[in-house]
Amino acid sequence: TKTHRIALIPGDGIGTEVVPAARKVLDVVSERHGIELTYTEFDWSCERYLREGAMMPDDGMERLREHDAILLGAVGYPGVPDHVSLWGLLIPIRRSFRQYVNLRPIRVFEGVPSPLRTAAAGEVDFVIVRENVEGEYSQVGGRLYQGFPEEVAIQEAIFTRAGVTRILDYAFDLAARRGGRLTSATKSNGIVHTMPFWDELVAERAIHHPGVTWDQEHIDALAAKFVLQPGRFDVVVGSNLFGDILSDLAAAIAGSIGIAPSANLNPEREFPSMFEPVHGSAPDIAGRGIANPLGTVWSAALMLDHLGHPRAASDITDAIATVLAKGATITPDLGGSATTDELTEALIQAL
Ligand code: NAD
Ligand code: IPM
Ligand code: MN
Predict the structure, then answer these.
(1) Which ligand approaches the C-alpha of residue 258 most closely?
(2) What ipTM did this prediction achieve?
(3) Mutation test of ligand 2: which of 244, 281, 296 has the most ligand atoms closer than 8 Å to its C-beta?
(4) 256, 248 in Cβ contact below 8 A?
(5) Most buried of 17, 151, 160, 314, CB within 10 angstroms?
(6) Span 10-22, pLDDT tens digits
(7) Where are the strands (E) in 44-123, listed by range?
(8) Residue with CA closest to ligand 2 atom 12
(9) Could you identify the atom of ligand 2 that is nearest to the CA of residue 240?
(10) Which residues lie at CB < 5 A from ion ligand 3?
């Protein structure tokens, strides 16, 4: 059997609490399925930045490259500006490893109270496919004349035919493997040059995926539909910023941002892909041992699936469903009083 080399980057805040939890679950599942995983742990974080002046060492990317996958907690902490922590670690990994797909599955599990009465357990099950390397998150622009009355901030959105085409093809293919329905998030009714281009490419790619039924919604109306009819979605594709906003909204609909997982995929497998919860470092609850580990545990399941172990992955999501359905051992974000460790232990029992 092949050994998979996993890079662990716990990062900051609750990242250092939820990554060890996921590791414990991985240990149990990999043993059971005879999967060999070896780990390298990296202390790359805001703490390292304050100590050494950089989030990661100069050869950080080369060291990551020697791995088959990356499991990351979260980066960002008060005292270090977000543009330093994120552009010093998370964003370079997504970009230099061409992780242009950000996959974010959403499920309303049995036993988890959604804040919405429109979100019935078992009926909400969809995936957001977020474009992950271009769009509104571009490096083109900047700030000038700081502190003067002429001060200006400029941000260009970059949409390329190649970049939009590949994310759309990924989303159409995924829809074909799932329920056969794709929704595209757009805003072509606004004064935005990029979105009519996006829409044209959706219509063009649809011709190549005749088995998929598709529609498009303006992002504002789509946000409302997420709330009013969350059960009607199968695959939702959106640009970098639209996908970002929709994924926190969807996570909240599913009961807590603490559950939501993500996979930053390099579909060509030229580079390692990265798996991380949707949430951040949650400084407001860090250090208290009450962070929900399920977003990271589910991300670890996505990692196993990506590494070619779908049965081990579904064992993990089944254990998550079992623990949530029982409802006895859940963290405060879900309305319970369990600690991170207790929830992790309950998962291991369910396995
Ligand atoms: P956040 O996701 O860290 O927190 C938002 C809210 O959700 C907080 O109230 C938090 O307590 C709660 N929450 C988040 N995860 C939880 C969990 N697992 N269990 C229980 N409750 C949870 O978002 P934010 O406050 O906007 O950002 C905090 C920091 O994290 C910032 O520095 C931000 O840039 C960074 N961030 C990093 C990533 C990443 O590394 N991928 C993602 C998002 C935010
Ligand atoms: C996410 C996060 C990041 C993003 C931030 C921290 C840069 O919100 O992974 O959703 O916007 O991509
Ligand atoms: Mn986000």
Answers:
(1) 1
(2) 0.98
(3) 244
(4) no
(5) 17
(6) 999 999 999 999 9
(7) 69-74, 101-107
(8) 244
(9) 12
(10) 244
